[in-house]
Write a structure and sequence with these properties.
The structure is a homotetramer. Chain A is an all-alpha fold. Chain A folds into two domains: 82 residues, Orthogonal Bundle (Helix Hairpins), CATH 1.10.287.1080; 34 residues, no CATH class. Helix content of chain A is 61%, strand content 0%. Chain A is built from five helices and no strands. At the C-D interface, α1, α2, α3 and α4 of C face α1, α2, α3 and α4 of D. Chains A, B, C, D: It comes from Canna indica (Indian-shot).
């Protein structure tokens, strides 16, 4: 029922914590180990896009298995990010909501429209 | 009320989509643009940890403002990851749950305990 | 005179070693610290390219100051890579020549021509 | 004879250019393709260090094959960096020498000694 509402960051945090504990992996999950693992996964994600030139939104023409592979690499980045946040004592969901508010202040909707300056070209 | 249950990936996806539309940023949010923005944020996250040597779990001794800064960089990575997934047509929450199931098959709890082989040292 | 022949990796290694010693920075230059610093610089490099869409070779239309900035970020990645190799006891120039030989075996010139398979689309 | 003096960036640039031309890979080597390939290699480099905790200089205790593998990943990052610079029209050796001079101005040797401020903890 809860998952009808969507997957929460808290549920992923808990699943990762259980997963690590059941395998005695807590010993390996120091912040910098997890950060480097995250960088490794970002590398794998980049490899998917590296020789393709520009890729249109929605990935038209990609095979189902390519999209599945992409979903796996995106997930690996997410799962290490969730685990890293947990090991740092950061509530990632709360931090993300706060950052969204900061972004809304930094880039007011009216001022950004049609602006093409470096600082506001789509960026956080 | 819903947020008592925790922040969902779907709610972040929707907030990012609204944020981009209100600023006419959809034009900049192609998959590879977002991927490079994600790499940029991973770089900023790494800078926080770069000169510290090993960092213990829970970040004892870090100042409140350092933890806040960390929360912001973790969030930036998350928000671009959510947006990248959306622009690729990947349901990130669903993909993450599926990946967790694949991981559970790949690394059965009993076999991994105390294993120190390369493949199973804490990794997805 | 020597530099007429081009900058050697060995000369950069020595300059970085001198630079660090003169500033008492050896204490900070552990392998993983340098690796994270490298990741940070790769992030800054990515930021230069992140909102541009596809960029043609030779960067037509870029301002002189943008190219200079790019040269600085490319250099930062290089300098940390040189320093990381040194701190790991790896002779980077020798390793690169060896890798080029391995690549030549892995991707024979005749077989790759016009091949568009994933493995050989321009990759090492 | 020349290589007794060490491997130059220019010689690597030329070898990579020849390598790509002989395989018809120029078509794939756009700046952003190469940048993403570089990120992929940085990911592979990170994977070598990810579960190890702090690693002492010189990598005591690493097996010969682990060091060789490390040398290969360091080389892959270097080779893509050299190629990316070439495709951007940046003279990487010249840029690196210029950046070293800028760094010497930014961090004067006398002022940095024993300084532990964030800005000067070993960083470019």
């Amino acid at each position: 029922m809860a998952e009808e509402q969507g997957v929460t960051l808290e549920s992923l945090r808990k699943k990762m914590a259980d997963f690590a504990r059941e395998r005695d992996w807590d010993q390996f999950h120091s912040p910098r180990n997890l950060l480097l693992a995250l960088v490794g996964e970002v590398g794998e994600l980049s490899e998917i896009f590296q020789w393709r030139g520009e890729v249109p939104k929605g990935l038209p023409g990609w095979k189902e298995e390519e999209k599945e592979h992409l979903g796996e690499e995106l997930s690996d980045v997410l799962l290490y990010l969730v685990r890293l946040s947990d090991m740092c004592g950061v509530d990632l969901g709360k931090a993300a909501l706060r950052k969204l508010e900061l972004n809304a202040v930094k880039y007011p909707a009216n001022h950004c429209k049609d602006s093409h300056s470096g600082a506001s070209q789509g960026g956080l």
